[in-house]
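Checklist before submission:
- one chain only
- standard amino acids only
- sequence pasted in full

Submission:
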Amino acid sequence: MDGNKENKMNLNLDPQIASGSYANLAIISHSRSEFVIDFASTLPGMPGPKINNRVVMSPEHAKRLLNALAENVGKYESQFGRIMLEGAANGNTFNLADMMQGGGAKS
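Returned file contents:
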């Protein structure tokens, strides 16, 4: 295949999906054969996070997603400046289970 040609794919976007849904939390788990990503939102005054969407993918596709996100975050930061993560020193994440049991963010 010619290196200058882009792979093109026709995508169909259902109008009910096109509006998207808001998520400010992603909960990721995995088994040997799949990754599960639950997208949730948590807002002030709400009793806890509500899962809005679940995506299940193979480990290979999860790694492709990781690479695509890294590439796109790099492009974003080149255009708009570095994204600062408030309260997340060195890019650490937290364990949601610790927060649900009254613990703090895990570093």
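Reviewer check: The two ends are 46 Å apart (CA to CA).
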